[in-house]
Amino acid sequence: TCIRDSLRLLRNRFGSQGSTGFLFLEQPVFNVDIVLKIPEVVMNPTLDEIQECMNKTAKAILRAAKHVFAWGQDRSGDVAHLKNFYNLIGKSRSIVKVVFQLTGTFAGLRRAVDDYLEMFHRYDFLWKENKADCLAKFLESDPSLDDFEKEIRKYDDIEAEIAGILPVHNIESLSMESQSLKHSLKSEAALWKSTFGASVNDWAQSELESLQGFIEETMTQLNREIKDLDDVRDAMRTLSRLRELESEIDLKIAPITDAYALL
After folding, report:
1. What's the pLDDT tens digit per position in 54-63?
2. 238 with 217: CB under 8 angstroms?
3. CB-based contacts of 43: which residues, under 8 Å, 6+ apart?
4. I want to staple 181 with a disulfide (CB 3.0 to 4.6 A). Which of 34, 221, 231, 253 is the partner?
């Protein structure tokens, strides 16, 4: 009866239905981490390792019967030859039933854990898709700065969504902590932002260098020493061209400023 009740207590504790979600009625038995182990999101320790721990506990309870000897035996000698209740317990239907039920609790727990981990599959593109290939495909469409901004903001939104994931989720006897996973997911999203941001930076730097080259060329022409009437005419043409390009220069500066603001 004692062994059967101990196994039942173990079964009920591991298969408790009152502790799913963030709030729970009973303290979970195991604290586990949800981690990104590319290419999958997994538990650490794994559910198989936890089940093995539980099986060892159940076996230890059953083996305790080897030290419970039947009455009426001579105990003056080596107790190893005495009859114990271990074999008798192994034939008990009620105990075998509880052992099977204990195994069954993990089948239900495994399904619940798999359902919870499934929710993170929507982020798997962060590490499964090739960043360079996606950027190259994006650039083929000749994107505007607004297109870049939308793409970068998309990863900002993903980071905010990840930050909103609850730090702890309890499923029956497991307390599943997601802090490590959240850090990994945010790092992956940041790499995507960095990839697109680097492309914006390259474009802005190229435009800035082009504009700077034009300004330097113009200033060189204007700073020439005036020696004759031809030099005056050249200076006037340069000033006239500069006035004509003034609005164009403003149009070039605005997106460069916006690009660096985006970064």
Report:
1. 888 888 888 8
2. no
3. 32, 33, 34, 35, 113, 117, 176
4. 34
